[in-house]
Structures are given as structure tokens and as C-alpha cells.
Design brief:
With 749 residues, the protein is an alpha+beta fold. The protein is built from 29 helices and 25 strands. The strands form seven sheets. Strands 9, 12, 13, 18, 21, 22 and 23 form a seven-stranded antiparallel β-sheet that branches. Strands 14-15-17-10-19-20 form a six-stranded antiparallel β-sheet. The chain has a three-stranded parallel β-sheet with strand order 1-5-2. The radius of gyration is 28 Å and the shape is globular.
Amino acid sequence: MNTKTLLHIAVRNQAIYIANDKKIQEVTNTLNKTTSVLLANAQKLGFTFSEALLRQLNATTPTYKNEVLEMLKEVTGTKKNWTPLVKGWDVPTGETVLDHLITVFANAIGSKKGTTLPCGHLIPEGTFPLDRYNGCPFCGTPFEFGEIENYGQGSKLKVLELWTNEDAHAYFMDLLQSKTALDATQVDSLKQLLTIYTIPEGIKIGMKETTMLVVDTLVEKEEAATAGKLFKTPTDILRYLWYKHTGFLQIIEPKTIAKRQSKNAAHIHRILDKSASAKLKSKADLKLKYSRQECRRVAQWLNELPMKAAQACEIMHPKRGMWVRFIRALRLAEYSKKKGFENLAELLDVFYNEKYTVFQGRVNYYRLRQDANKTFSMLKKRPGLFARSLFSNMLWFGAEETLAHFREVLDKIPARLVLTLNMYAQNYFNPNMQRSVKPLGGTNKRIPANGLLKLYNAEDLKAMQEKIEQLCIEAIQLRFEGQENNNETIYIGEGLYKIPLSIGDRSESVQDLPSALMGTRFPLEGSTVRLFMQWGQGLPAQHLDMDLSCRVAYPNKSNFCSFSKLNIIGCKHSGDIRSIPNKVGTAEYIDIDVDALARDGAKYVSFTCNAYSNGSITPNLVVGWMDSKFPMKISAKTGVAYDPSCVQHQVRITQGLAKGLVFGVLDIEAREVVWLEMSFVGQVVQNLDVKGVEVLLAKLDSKMNIGHLLELKATAQHLKKVDDTNVADEVYDRKWAMNTAKVTQLLVD
């Protein structure tokens, strides 16, 4: 069993994994020397251990304790280079645009008056104060590096719990059975766990995306026949093929990927624009090519699908263009002529000759003709489609008639969809509110309210919201009532009322530190928030310009702090690095003075990172923020300002198509940081749509929290709320909520 893998996954779940074979002595109350040293070092990194964990660690070998410490150092990034461009950057260097212009001119004419740096640039006398820089102030190439000097400045330690073999396997099962799509952290964890544990026979996998990961594992073990039994529709097969080809678990159209990569390669300066070549390269990379073995495997899967050809083709229709490419690349026409592939032959015949009707087309046909009975009769055959089009049909046909038909299929709709309807009704039926959407493979966009809302008055729209809420709450309570439960008391932790349910808005970045759901609010301990960004670890020296910025929103204006504006009211930037050193990476920081911004009347601050270089944000880039009620020091000698004990939250970019990313929003009045992910197009923070951030915040605020859902459960099952975990039959606290996949088991279908 891979102990390091399980240890890594355990830290993400705010725990430490200890296997039984790691213990060399009986559990005692007296701490030995090596345990005391481990505890002291962990506290410097911002961690401490629960009593149960501490006792178990005390019984392990010194070697294993060292493994634990090395893992904590790895996830906190203490071995990375955190040196910024400017030494003691909390004091401005006084550099101006004129300094840059003089340097450009001096280098152009070949002047000899000044200092020549290792990068080759000459810095004229009287311009940049070179003693304040760790590299070239003109081109942003670092030369000098320093170590982390300040540890243990954090005011709040993360308490790590004990994880055993049973806990690790239970987490594996929770991921497989999760009733909502897994985020990037959970996907990464499941991939690793699939190499350790065997997949139980007969297990019901909760989501299509999760199934793809299981199928991939089975195929690698040469169990293609077993994998084929997990496919229910042709779209499942297409999803798997596309995942293997692109790494995306969602089916993002090839033209969307090519368009995004082309936009990412565009540049403000036309001479550096590489969008055309990037588009050609993307199209070349997306070309399909398969071996004979792979072709036969897919042909077998399609041939054995448990559905009629016409039904299968109707499901294939929305991605018809992609299917045509795959059919050719997989030589399916050739295999359809072989003996034993008669079902595949029929499927291709029906598909190419279009001997099928498209369900959505018929729904639209009756809908446009105002034929409510036939429209709803068809929608009731597809409850999921009915739920997704419920709001628009209420405006089109009227609320009473629509909801009357919807009630007939309400029990067939997944709980996550029912809750989604309840969460977003308030925003949808507000004619003055724009909505935030994110198309597959695209960036967050604002869309206007449905035009039909203008046909209804405020009272009618409010009544629609209330009817949706009442209907959804009743549906959830009925499902809870249908569960057998002999318990009498329940404990609901206060912190659960601030944690949203993990429905929609999945995160695309990995959280190596204890993970959180998008929309989680982090209360501030102090009056300074320090943003940090580290990138380039393990890469050769090259020009790779990533930028850390923030956008300050006021009631009637906005401002920004970035490489082009290092100091504004309440914000200080550590300097712009444009080239990375060999293998060790580099870093940028921004200090945000919350008190100063509050006095200046600011509402909130958006934390952003951008790829100024051609292409998307580089993989393994780490961004996050630090907070402490104690002063967080900045090295006057090197400028290093990173202290792992102060890190409140951080994420690591693994892959994707994002050019710019909002990774948090500071609510100045509430003194809270909201963690979210919002991708946007553009090289600089000025491209960020401030209104779009507000719309996304409104969407996240409308989400039901875990505490509210547990209240519904308590009411439906007649459970008495208690304030003491020791007397409660059911305990739901923040520790339980850490496993978001387990939380989804509350969604009763």
C-alpha cells in the first residue's frame, strides 16, 4: 500500500494517515523526544495534532514521523523559492516610468555608464536603486534567492485528525458514490486511490464523470469487458474517449478548445501575437488516431450497448459532428461488417441515414405552437430536462399549469437538481438581475434576465419564487421522511451554516492543504491580507510572465494593484517578475491593508492571477492568501514574505484553459474572504469584469448551506436539536463536512 499517497490525500482532508504496520510500540500518554520535535515543527508550519492522532503518532517509528513532516513541508511549499523581485518591498523603491524609458534609451545606444547585470541589461546611474532588487528591475529576471526566514507567525493552527485504513477506504467509497460531480481535488485523489484499492463489485457509481475514472483504471488493467458494462449510453463512451484524448471529464467541443487556446495566445503587442499559430497547433493536437486494439475495444462497447439503435442515435445527435470524426478514426464502418457486430452495423445505418427523431426538436415544435399538453407530456418522459427548463416554461405557459405537471415527476428528479431549482429561483425571477453562467470550456459570463419576465408584475414573480421554494422544500422533506431513522437527537455545528452545498460551480484547481467548497467564507484574524503566487518550480529558466494582481471595487469606481501600478491606497505589490530562474521557481506578493481600504470607502477586493505570456496559466502555479492577527514580517534582506503558518487558503493550477483567474474576494465590511474560482479572458487585471464578480457572488450567496439542509432533515425525521455532541445520536460538525463527497449522501434520490 502506497503510504505516501494516502498521507497526501489525508492532509487534504485535514488528517494524518497512520497504518497499523507503522507502529512499533503501545500507545502511551508520555510523548517521546521525536514526537515532541515533530509537533514543534508542525506548529511552525501552521498545524497541530488532535489528542487521538498525537497518541498514535507517538507509537510510530522516527522514520515515519519524518515522512509526515516531509509531507507537511511538501504541501506547504517550504522547499520552493519564495523570493520576490524587491527586497523589503513594503517600502516603495521609488521607481518610475522615466527610469524604464532612460534604461531603454541607454541600452539602445549602447551606453557604458551604469551597471551591467547578468541578464545583459545596463542600468544607468541615477535610475533604479539596484541595492533594493534581487534581479533586474528592467526585465524582471531574478538572480538572488533567499530562504523563508519567518515561521510560526500564524494565529490559528489547523488541527489534523487521525486517519486509519478504514477511513481511507471509506473516503474512497464516498468519492465513488458521490451524488455531485467531483471537483479537481477529489478527482486527483480518486485517481490515486484507484491504484491502491480494488473497485467493489456491484457498486453504484454516483456520477458519469466518476465512471470515466473507474473505466480508465479497468482498461489499464486490461479489463475492457468489465469496463464496457459501466457504459449505459453512447455519450458515456464518447465522454471516456474525449477524456483520454484531452484530459477533460466534460465533453468540451473541439472548436471551443481551439478558440480558447487561440485567445490565450493573443497578445497586447501585435508583434508578439501567436493566436493564429496556436489555433493551428490546437487543431493538430486534437486530431484523432487509434490503434487496431483500441478500435476493436470501442466497437465492442458500442455493439453491446443495452439500447435500441434509434434511441442511441437520438442521444448521439447533439454531438453529431464529434461522432462523425470518431467513427472514422475508430474504423467503425470496417468493424460493422464483421461477424458478431450486427448491432454496431444497425447503429451506424440509423445514424448516417438519420432514421431517428430528435426529442428536443419535438419538444420545441410543440412549445412554439403553445401546445402545453403535448409539451408537458414529452417533458415528463425526461424529468431531468423538465427540471432544467422549468423556469422558462413557467414564464411561457404559466406557473400553475407548469408546476401541476412538474409535481407528477418530482420524485424522479435527482435531489441535487431539486435543490438547484430552490437556490436559483430568487435570482432567475428577478427582472433586474443578471445571471452568471459558465459554458463548457468557456469563461464566466453575465447574461441578461429572461425577456419574458417583463410580462409579469412584481407580485406574480414573487409568487413564482415562493411556489418553487415551497415545492422544493416539500420534495426534500418527503424524501427525508421516507428514510427509516430510529435516532432521536441531532447536533448541527454552527460552522455548517457558512458552508454551501457542493452543487454546481465545481473547482478546477487542486487544494493540497485542507480543502474547502467554492463559496466558503474565511473570517479574517487580522487587518492585513497577504496574497502570494509561486510558479516555475521544476521548469528550466525561460521567459514565463505570470502576474498577481487585485481589483479594488468602490461604490462608483474601481482601482487596481498590479505590475503596472505597484502601490495604491491599501495595496502594495512586491514587483513584476517576467522570467523564471532554473528549476526553483519564483514568487510575487501583494499586501492588502483592510483598515486603509475601509477608510477609503472600498466595498471588496478581487484577487486575480493572469498569464501575461502567450498561453494559459502555467500548470502547478500556486496562489492563495495569508492572514494572522499577529504582524506578518517581510525580509528586508531578501523580500521573502511567505510563512506557511499564516496561509488561510491556497490552490494549485493543474490544467485548464484559463488565461485569467479570480481566486478570492475580500468583503471589506464583513471582513471575510470568499473563496471562489472565476475565469476570465485577458492578459491584465483591467480585463476583469467587476460586475461579473458581483453577479457570481450573488449566485454563491443564493446557495443552500449544509446547516439548512440538516434542519430540513431534523424537521422531517422529528429529530431534536441538541448543543452537546456527547448526547447527540447524529453528529454533524465541520470535521464531518470536510468530506464533501460524504455530505452528498444527504441528497436522497
